Amino acid sequence: MSKEQLMPYEKAIEQFEVVIGLEVHVELNTKSKMFCGCKNEFGSEPNTNVCPICIGLPGALPSVNKKAVESSIAIGLALGCDIAKTCRFARKNYFYPDLAKNFQTSQYDEPIAFGGKLSIELADGQSFNVEIERAHMEEDAGKLTHVGGSTGRIHGADFSLVDYNRAGVPLVEIVTKPIFGGGDKAPELAAAYVRAIREIVKTMNVSDARMERGNVRCDANVSLRPKGQEKLGTRTETKNVNSIRSVESAVRYEIQRQAHILANGGTIIQETRHWHEDRGYTSSGRVKSDAEDYRYFPEPDLVPVEPSADWVESIRAALPENPEKRRKRLSAEWGFSELEFRDVVNADLLDVIYATVEAGAKPQAARKWWSGELARIANAENKSVEELAITPAQVAEIQTLIDSGELTDRMARDVVAGVLAGEGEPRAVIEQRGLKVVSDEGALIAAIDLALAAQPDVLEKIREGKLQAAGAVIGAVMKAMGGQADAARVRELVLERAK
Ligand code: ADP
Ligand code: MG
Ligand code: ZN
């Protein structure tokens, strides 16, 4: 498939005003599913967490998961929404193999939360107010895996597998009002919005919020209108964009694609589109009209949800500190420079650093690990740092060993490599790889003697005050010791010898 023609981005935003609308699905981390007692668990054997209710056998009766309602209310409150005094579920009817019931139990005209807003700050400090239309409860569908073919999509596949473990997992869908005024920053704004939602639900611990697992998914609506025109342009809806980076790229791509079509007298078709992460383009999905007929009707098997004012207020009282406030507080506590802190936030490292500090590392050391070595490794593997096979607690443990002199920096990097390679906990890696700082002074002195014999002028230079001459000897000793000597101690010993 070839890319469509694109207008250069600068030219596109010069001619057109960009309007975006974001629908974010958040999978809740409740113990059980939305309407039955099946486990809500990622990674189980396919089709083991299923029952007559979530696969819709005739006569099965659903009931609402109270915890899921509580989490939905909490999300609504965190987004500044009003909470409905009463609301109902509805059946959204459609046929697709990932939906054994042939309808999705969702909310339609009576969402649990509505009318909120969220202030979003971009990397450059610009801030925007995004208005939230509603947040409603629904259930997830099963997961299809298309086998064969080249794209992983249904077209061209030899066969498809379906796993209903995810069917019936509670979701909250958060829908924005159309967002104007993003200007040339619309793609960044879309990404920052999704990041903010993810940060909120993660801080609240109502979702695992792991985008690579699909816990947070975004449908990005984009339309353009000629500058000065009142009427909104026709939108496209790019479905299931599953990383923050992709949200930005997909919106940018749609702007450039639509601008090219419009500038050449074409029209935009209201349709869903797919984002191809690997090659960075969107392709046409299905045509979708506003009046798409899902034959919504109120769910007859569930009573309305009527959260009492007391309950809502107790949920409000238990909300954690909002992420913006938390950032301000941490920034002060950690003592990073403004630039360091901004880099941490922009690189999405706040949470891992927080967890590493909680586990006992000093903030600066935690920052250096995650924004240095570990970010580099994650980048090279095209992952987020959270996807690396090392936890904040392990990083903190390794850092503690550096601080106590049991590991040199270089050895610590080896330990990290070992943990990442699945060799076990830091202690086990140290054991297996034989990584111990050589503290046997005799061995150090012998190595220093050898190095000095090879570079006889060094001691004289040190005596003349050229301390940097010691570097060559320290280097040779470290090499002889396989990097496992304490460099600071070696330096001390060399300087002593020059006295
Ligand atoms: P759908 O069922 O088609 O997904 P929703 O109401 O759930 O409709 O979501 C539509 C999203 O698109 C909302 O975020 C809305 O603000 C946004 N939107 C509506 N019209 C436009 C438009 N012309 N351009 C960009 N976004 C739009
Ligand atoms: Mg929608
Ligand atoms: Zn079930």
UniProtKB/TrEMBL annotation:
It holds the Pfam family GatB_N. It catalyses: L-glutamyl-tRNA(Gln) + L-glutamine + ATP + H2O = L-glutaminyl-tRNA(Gln) + L-glutamate + ADP + phosphate + H(+). One of its GO terms (biological process) is translation. One of its GO terms (molecular function) is glutaminyl-tRNA synthase (glutamine-hydrolyzing) activity. The keyword ATP-binding applies. Keywords: ATP-binding, Ligase, Nucleotide-binding, Protein biosynthesis. SUPFAM superfamilies: GatB/YqeY motif, Glutamine synthetase/guanido kinase. Residues 351-498 form the Asn/Gln amidotransferase domain. The keyword Protein biosynthesis applies. Belongs to the GatB/GatE family. GatB subfamily. NCBIfam families: gatB, PRK05477.1-2, PRK05477.1-3, PRK05477.1-4. This is Unannotated protein.
